[in-house]
Every structure is written in C-alpha cells, then in structure tokens.
C-alpha cells in the first residue's frame, strides 16, 4: 500500500505499520512516500525525525482508538451502497432539520438515528443537517472540537456507521448535509503543526489555518480535499461550513470560492446537486452571490438576524445581542439582514450590508426559530419551549415556514421538546476538562448568570438531560405543535406560493403585534398579541390552515391572540387596511 504524508520541514519520516517502522522517501513537494504491504484494517502512524512519537495520519479515514491512537487503513470501495437511484435534492424548496447524532436518540449512534428517520419523513423535511461527526477527543461532545477531519467519530459508529445513515436517508428521500469545521481545531489531539505550517494565528476557538502564507497551497488542499471526500466517498449531499468569517484568507482567490468551484465540478461528475451552506457573522451576501456576479458562489448562508428578530418577538428577551431587534421582525423579514450597514450596539459599530432583493432569491438564506448555537450557548441550554407556550411557538413556525427563506428546524423543536440542549464535552485530560468547566462558568457569570446555574459540561448527566425524549411526541402539550409543523410543511409543499423565493415579491404588513405575509394569493396572518381583527387587502376566502378558531367576514379576519391563519384571497382592487381589536375570540381546543 502507498503511504504518504506532507511534512516539508522534516529530515526523516517513518511510517509505523502494525508496530514496525518503515523509512519514507521525501519528494521535492514536501510529501514523504513509502510502499508497505498493508490491507484494510491495518493500523499505522507516522514518526517524525527521531522523536519516537507515533502520530495519527492528518488525513486519516479511521480512528478506532481515538484521536491520539494510530490510524487504520480504510477501504471506501468495500461498503455496499444501495442508493444508486438517488439523484439528490436541490436546496430551493427545501426544509432542513438540524440534529446531533449523540443526543438525537438515547443510543447516540448513527444506527440509533436511522430508527427515527421515519419521523422526519412524516414531518415532511427534505434535508437532514448533521452536526460534526469528525473525530474529537473523548466520547461525547458537540463535534466542533474535531482534530482529524476525515475520520468519523468512532463512538457514533465510525465510517461504516455514517455510510449506513446516509444510505438510509437516501432510501427515504432525505438529503444529508454535514456540518464541517475548517476555522480551527480542538484543544486535544491537534497534531497538524507537528507535520507542517498548517496554522497561522488564532481565533476565539483555537488555532486558525494558514490559508494564504508560505506553504498554504497544501493547507488549502487539505481543506478542499476533505470537503470533496465527504461529498464523494460518503455520498453526502452538501456541507454546512462553520463560522466562515474566521477563515482568514487574503488570497485573490478566497478558499471558499475555490471550494465552490471544485464542488461544482464534482457535482457535474456525480450527477446530483451538491450544496454549500455557510455560517457567517458578516451579514454580507457576497458569500451567496454567484461567482459571475462577483461573489463566492456558495449556495446559502444562515441568517442569525432573522433568528434574533423572531426570538425577541416570541420571547420578549432583549439582553445580550438582542436589544437592537426589539420591534424589528417585520423589517428583518423583508430585508434578510437587520444590520445592513447600520449601527450594532452589541458590536459598538456599523455592521453588514444590504441584500439586493431584486437579484438574490430568499432560498439562499436559512431562517430558523432555534438552532444548536442559539439554544446550546445559553447558560442552561433552555429551549424556547421552556418559557413560550406552544400556541405562540406555532405562530413563529408559521412565519418561518411561510417565508421565502429556506426554513430550518432544530431537533425536537417541532414538538416543543422539554429536554434542554446544553453544552457538553468529555475530554479525558483532567486539566483540560477543568479548564473548560471553569471557563464556561466564568463566561456566563460575566453575562449575569450565577455560576452554579451553569451545568457541568463534563458530567455525563448533562448529555443525558440533552437527549431527546421520543415518548413526548404523541403526548398532550407536544403533539399539538407537531401537528401544526406537519401541516405547515405539507401546505408549503402543496402551495408553491409559500415557498416562492422571490424577495422582490414578498410583502410584509405589520401593525403592532400583527403581521400579514403576502404570498401570492395567500395571506399568512400572524398574531403575537391579544385578540385582533385584521382587514386584508382583498376578499378573504377559504382558511387553508389555522392554529385556532378564526372568523372570516369579507375582508376581515378575526383571530385570538397567539394564533395564525393562512387565508386564500380574491383580489378586488386597492383596499384600505387596518387593525381593530374586537371582543374575545375563542380558540379551538388543542387537536
């Protein structure tokens, strides 16, 4: 077998195969190579110079003994796929579902997750976004402290387990998006700098990659080859790129644009759409602007501004980075970014730039009520459902799922899961574990939480608390919201107006706590206040879906507080609009 490793600054490199060292030969490109008899399942590691330390392969495909142990030869061709008929799913019109393998089911494995895929089919989602599955130190964690990006975390089921999961998703018509982290490496097992100039500077989470300095060509290939490997070898349908604003690259061709170009070529080769979704704090739509339009050519990005505006409207919270978003829901729904060259009090400066709504479609921006960050990075990991009644959450769901944006659901959100989703890790090194534990408590202490309120991230009980309880789905107080989500997604699929991504045709009317979304011939009336009467711009016809009992009379729609109704209208010319509070309107009993 041909072993190879990039180690340009070393004088001697050996590959240790099944405990025996073999000399490697250096090439002018900094790559060391050696042919050693080895079959799939053989353990190997690299020894640099005369250190004696056996280090895992930076491009390892399999780490059965953890991130500090040897790598193991893995044969991608040995897996028997059954998804030959799978042609993929494009992002326009999609509904994305974000999940974490370790807490999605009590088993915490890929095979355990497969047993719940039929729930996602029943819900109506199209794309499953899996939080990082790359190897990290310990057994339990969010996955963002990965250090061997190409090896699947063994406690989840390893590379074969992930392939079984992807294959099972495809068999059910579900596309798979994988969360990948290229902006930093975790604090334990990050041996890349021992091999070559992989790092340059640091960011809030750890060492950053050398993307534009000396030796950066191979580092960029390390990133891009890893991305292509997930899409090609694991049949993944797209990638969610974590915190791309932390990728420092001053090259003329940014690594994200280079990635978009190569993924486009791979998509043509495998004959299915491949999607790149960025998480970015920049509020800059150049990321999702086509390359011929001067952008990077990514397919979509998360929009935290939409989340923040929704969160404030639903919960009333206005601390931290939320104060700017009080009363901002209508504007943010129309403009995508609330901070679009405007003052951000949280940052103490102007932030963002406007989205060209005449050119960019809404499906390039993901909208969500919750996600792993916005729940898990709260001190106690409390979900919206811990403080907001399901009827109000249903109104938020109607806004997201009737918008021109690509909606995303965080696991358990659809039934108002009672379980929190807290920060957890399991670093075996006691000093590192204590540093993470105390650092987490101090961080939240500075934001007003008592340190005793912050769960111990190293306690296995924190993982258990964060694991979904599937017995809740069909019980009162939960099934009502699940029925609403399922009905909204089905209506979005059957009525093209609700998924129409054209932002220049998207109208949002608001007065006080009532919003009306204009979606073709449909009006989505969303009431986050007390009982109200809404006068539409046209004659109201059939009520296609409502979360409570509503009354329709001509152009007037009456509905109780914390309720929504999706109404079909018959255009009848310009009509003055207004909102008048009627007497109480009785809500229908929970279904």
Highlighted features:
591 residues, alpha/beta, 8-stranded parallel beta barrel, 5-stranded antiparallel beta sheet, 31 strands, elongated, disordered C terminus, DUF3459
Question: Can you describe what's shown?
Answer:
There is one protein chain. The protein has 591 residues and is an alpha/beta fold. It has an 8-stranded parallel barrel with strand order 9-10-13-16-17-18-21-22, surrounded by 4 helices. A hairpin with a 2-residue loop joins strand 2 and strand 3 (20-23). Helix 6 packs parallel to helix 7 (255-270). The longest helix is centred in the middle third of the chain and has 18 residues, at 216-233. It starts with a strand and ends in an 11-residue tail after the last strand. Residues 573-591 have low confidence and may be disordered.
């Amino acid at each position: 077998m041909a072993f190879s490793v990039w180690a340009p600054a070393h004088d001697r490199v050996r590959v240790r195969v099944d405990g025996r060292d073999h000399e490697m030969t250096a090439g002018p490109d900094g790559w060391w190579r050696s042919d050693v008899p080895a079959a799939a399942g053989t353990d190997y590691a690299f020894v640099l110079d005369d250190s004696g330390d056996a280090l895992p392969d930076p491009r390892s495909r399999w780490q059965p003994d953890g991130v500090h142990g040897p790598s193991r030869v893995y044969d991608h061709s040995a897996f028997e796929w059954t998804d030959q008929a799978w042609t993929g799913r494009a992002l326009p019109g999609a509904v994305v579902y974000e999940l974490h393998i370790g807490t999605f089911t009590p088993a915490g494995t890929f095979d355990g997750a497969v047993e719940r895929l039929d729930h996602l089919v029943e819900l109506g989602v199209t794309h499953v976004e899996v939080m990082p599955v790359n190897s990290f130190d310990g057994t339990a964690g969010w996955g963002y402290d990965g250090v061997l990006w190409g090896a699947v975390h063994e406690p989840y089921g390893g590379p074969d387990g992930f392939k079984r999961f992807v294959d099972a998703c495809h068999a059910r018509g579900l596309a798979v998006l994988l969360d990948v982290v290229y902006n930093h490496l975790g604090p334990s097992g990050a041996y890349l700098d021992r091999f070559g100039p992989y790092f340059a500077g640091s960011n809030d989470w750890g060492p950053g990659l050398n993307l534009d300095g000396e030796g950066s060509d191979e580092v960029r290939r390390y990133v891009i080859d890893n991305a292509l490997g997930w899409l090609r070898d694991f049949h993944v349908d797209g990638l969610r790129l974590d915190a791309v604003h932390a990728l420092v690259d001053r090259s003329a061709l940014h690594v994200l644009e280079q990635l978009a170009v190569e993924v486009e070529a791979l998509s043509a080769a495998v004959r299915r759409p491949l999607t790149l979704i960025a998480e970015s704090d920049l509020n800059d739509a150049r990321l999702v602007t086509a390359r011929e339009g001067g952008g990077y050519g990514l397919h979509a990005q998360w929009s935290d501004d939409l989340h923040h505006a929704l969160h404030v409207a639903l919960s009333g919270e206005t601390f931290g980075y939320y104060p700017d978003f009080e009363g901002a829901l209508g504007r943010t729904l129309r403009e995508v970014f609330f901070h679009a060259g405007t003052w951000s009090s949280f940052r103490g400066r102007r932030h963002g730039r406007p989205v060209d709504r005449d050119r960019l479609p809404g499906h390039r921006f993901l909208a969500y009520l919750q996600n792993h960050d916005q729940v898990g990075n709260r001190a106690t990991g409390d979900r919206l459902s811990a403080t907001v009644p399901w009827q109000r959450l249903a109104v938020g769901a109607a806004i997201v799922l009737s918008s021109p944006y690509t909606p995303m659901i965080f696991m358990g959100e659809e039934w108002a899961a009672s379980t929190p989703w807290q920060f957890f890790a399991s670093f075996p090194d006691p000093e590192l574990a204590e540093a993470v534990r105390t650092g987490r408590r101090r961080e939240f202490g500075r934001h007003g939480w008592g340190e005793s309120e912050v769960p111990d991230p190293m306690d296995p009980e924190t993982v258990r608390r964060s694991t979904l309880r599937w017995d809740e789905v069909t019980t009162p107080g939960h099934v009502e919201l699940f029925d609403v989500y399922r009905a909204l997604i089905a209506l979005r699929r059957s009525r093209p107006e609700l998924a129409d991504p054209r932002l220049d045709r998207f109208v949002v009317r608001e007065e006080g706590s009532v919003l009306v979304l204009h979606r073709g011939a449909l009006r989505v009336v969303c009431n986050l206040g007390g009982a109200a009467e809404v006068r539409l711009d046209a004659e109201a016809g059939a009520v296609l879906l409502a979360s409570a009992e509503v009354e329709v009379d001509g152009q007037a729609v009456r509905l109780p507080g914390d309720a929504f109704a999706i109404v079909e209208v018959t255009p009848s010319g310009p009509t003055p609009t207004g909102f008048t509070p009627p007497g109480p309107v009785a809500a229908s009993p929970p279904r």
